Amino acid sequence: MPAKGGYTWDFDDPPVIEAHSLVKHGLLRDYLIGYFQAITIQPHIDSVRIVLVDAFAGGGVYKRWDDKGRHEGSPLIMMRAVHHAEEEINKSRTKPLVIKPKFFFIEESESGFHCLSRMLRESDAPYRDCVELRQSDFQQAYMGLISEIAQLKISKVLFVLDQYGYTTVPIAAIRTIFSAFPSPEVILTFAVDSLIDYLSPDNQKTVEKLGLNKYLPSGNELRILKSERDWRRTIQAKVIQGIFLESGAVFHTPFLIGSSASSRAYWLGHFSKHVRARDVMMQHHWKNSGRFSHYGRSGLHMFSYDPKRDDSLTGQLAFQFDDDAQSASHAQLVDDLPRHIYDVEGREGITFGEFLVKKYNDTPATVSMLRNAFEPALRDREILIIGKNGEMRRKASAMKDDDRILPNPQLRFKF
């Protein structure tokens, strides 16, 4: 099947792009800008090399669903975002930053390949001399492509895997990416509702092919699950958790986007090895409330959904990243965080950096929100925060990655 849902690409009459895909493009643009701003915050950094791969690049141009205006596709969005990030960063610098990108755009369909080629030739997009454009199927190309990129000796690599459906990106490919590079990231589209509709107790071939058979129920277990309330949410959580556990990533940010065209939701997952990358993605979700959601708790246990509990009491319906969600998340974290330090970490405590590796995937909060949520427990002396040289922190907002968070040994605190 051709990428991008089987579109036939015509430069003069491009396919229509729906609202949910515009949200996805906005996320990609804003994430790239925020990412470069985050990794270049130190003024001594004067250059950044990065490889960006759009493995389902499409034809590079669409027609908007609302006003029928032309809308550039993800390859040109990525090129312009990198250039915009460099311009914004240099507005506040005395020593200019130079971003040195290398782009690989992969498109399977012949019409898409030729349409994108023309878009790149005729547009004013920056970095056109930094592009490798190839007509290929991702599954056939990814091993050779990863090997080729590895030869460039560039540690920062971002793969955008905007597949149509859920079968064209093997989890083995994601695992290969994370084993091949020091600082890789993957943004993956996964049509989870389509997979759920396809699942049956007697057909597990697709699940096995994806590599998710260890995580999804089958046979009688699936029959029983389908009789339960909110069984689809349970499978949605199992799918994204399975992909994460098999991927080799350290951090992931999984969120649902609803499709107005099909009334089906798909996962938009961001996978990385570094907390800073996940934090930038989380900040983007909070800045764009209402466009993304996840199903789960607002505190430290995002996917611990309990279908037996009343949604109206627990707030376990779609989490929309609005002001109410932020207040609920803060209140829940204020309760969850000291409880975790006492009940799980114990008297030895845990450094903040170790805590992020261990628990950051389990919350929709940003790193800043986590620091703020530790503040009440520190103020009330329920916990102590001690620097690596023994200094006592007075503000959780000043907490560093190597600071240790401990239960206050002078308290007999029970939850």
Q: Looking at CATH, which topology of the largest domain would you report? A: Rossmann fold
Helix amount: 40-55%
Largest sheet: 7 strands, mixed
Identify the strand order in the major beta sheet.
6-5-2-7-8-10-9
Mean pLDDT: 87
User: How far do the termini sit from each other?
Assistant: 55 Å
Structure classification: alpha/beta
Radius of gyration: 23 Å
Uncertain stretches:
303-317
* Number of beta strands: 15
Number of helices: 14
> What is the class of the largest domain in the CATH system?
Alpha Beta
Q: In percent, how much strand structure appears in the residues?
A: 15-25%
CATH superfamily of the largest domain: Vaccinia Virus protein VP39
Overall 3D form: globular
Task: Compose a concise summary of this entry.
This protein is of the alpha/beta class and 415 residues long. It is built from 14 helices and 15 strands.
Structure description:
By secondary structure, this protein is an alpha/beta fold. The chain has two domains: 4-292, Rossmann fold (3-Layer(aba) Sandwich), CATH 3.40.50; 318-407, Arc Repressor Mutant, subunit A, CATH 1.10.10. Helix content is 42%, strand content 18%. The protein has helices spanning 19-39, 74-90, 110-122, 138-150, 171-180, 192-198, 205-210, 219-226, 231-247, 275-287, 311-314, 323-345, 352-359, 367-379, and strands spanning 16-17, 47-54, 61-64, 70-72, 98-107, 131-135, 156-161, 183-190, 251-258, 265-272, 294-295, 318-319, 350-351, 383-386, 404-407. Strands 6-5-2-7-8-10-9 form a seven-stranded mixed β-sheet, with helices on both faces. Strands 1-3-4 form a three-stranded mixed β-sheet. It has a three-stranded antiparallel β-sheet with strand order 13-15-14. It is globular, with a radius of gyration of 23 Å. Mean pLDDT is 87; it is low at 303-317.
